[in-house]
Amino acid sequence: MSEYVQEITQAEFETEVARSTLPVVLDFFSTECPPCEALAPKFDAVAEQFSGKARFLKIFRQGNRDLATRLGVTGSPTLVFFKGGAEQGERMSGEEIKRSALKAQVESLLGA
Amino acid sequence: MADRYDVIIVGAGPAGLAAAIYAARARLRTLVLDESVPGGQMKTTHKVSNYPGFPEDVKGTDLARAFSLQAERFGAKIRRAIEITGHDLSGPMKTFELDEEETVEAPAVIVATGARPRELGVAGESKYRGRGISYCATCDGAYFEGKEIHVIGGGNSAVEESLFLTQFAKKVTIVHQFDHFQAEPVSAAEALASPKIEVIWDSEPRAFLGDNQLEKLRIENVKTKEVRELATDGVFVFVGYVPRTDLVKGVVKMNAWGYVETGEDMSTDVPGLYVAGDIRAKQFRQITTAVADGTVAALAVQKYVKSLARAAA
After folding, report:
1. What ipTM describes this predicted complex?
2. Which pTM was predicted?
3. I want to staple B300 with a disulfide (CB 3.0 to 4.6 A). Which of A68, B145, B233, B265 is the partner?
């Protein structure tokens, strides 16, 4: 994990996501999930690109089931986007998340 | 300046990695590009039972790792999580732009991009993707611990992944459009004997319903036309694959189903451009057949690269 990405737990959701002043991209990941492994370097790269403008957080699904259930996340990886504490835009999930598409979505999150 | 290779292989599934092993052993400068991690469809297959050389079942991820380590041992360079943002495959020197920031080139290219899981094209499918609908049992099975789920399909993937899902789910109901499985008899019999698996035959999904979250699956019996709605905690879809041909669209000849037509040596109409594996028009698609295609493509590429060197000398 790069220095631009921080891992959180569900206990930190309120402070790190809901009350964040910057827009947040939250990545639900699992172990034994090749698509999650594939996303990680793209997530790190985009996180570095938007350093200081948006926060890129990861959360381990198996250890944080309640939050996953509360947000209705049932697949890994799933990216959920937040601005001003509220979820915004389409979620991204599965193996086909492209770096360029993630970048475009973060740009629109910043612009919105 | 573009980084130059003898051969660039796109796709690190069994076809691409077998090609990489043969190309690298022939001392061709070999680059493999993959938008994910190596393994292709193998890496999300929970177990492989029919790949020769493994008397016991082998995990798809382990087989994928073994393939890529073997290719790397001989000097093939495998680039992971790469997005191809530009390409030109039609000329004598083929080029790829990677992640909008670098260019690589080679006189020979093997496209082994395989196939992606087919979507059903049913109402609500994209809305509930990741909110109850999944296409990968190894990735998402654990989300459904103690739940009641449905699997759509009746081929090898559907039946074998259903068996895998019984580790987590309380009950797995398979919805299949025919009155028997297309899967191999061994797995089909195992599924039919499983106390956790139930099958609804002759039925197709018509809609996914719910609020924020998938709650119901609407199915229609194709014989009686009876429509009903089933409460569900989640649906896994395994209804075959569609070829990933974005790179070669408009460049090579494809058949009516979108698969690429090749010669027996995996060559296409474009000199220096080869395809191998599930993307190719053929009757059977297995790990073994992908490996065979990759082998043939790499041997053909060796001949082609040598012929170029002779012509230049």
Report:
1. 0.83
2. 0.89
3. B265
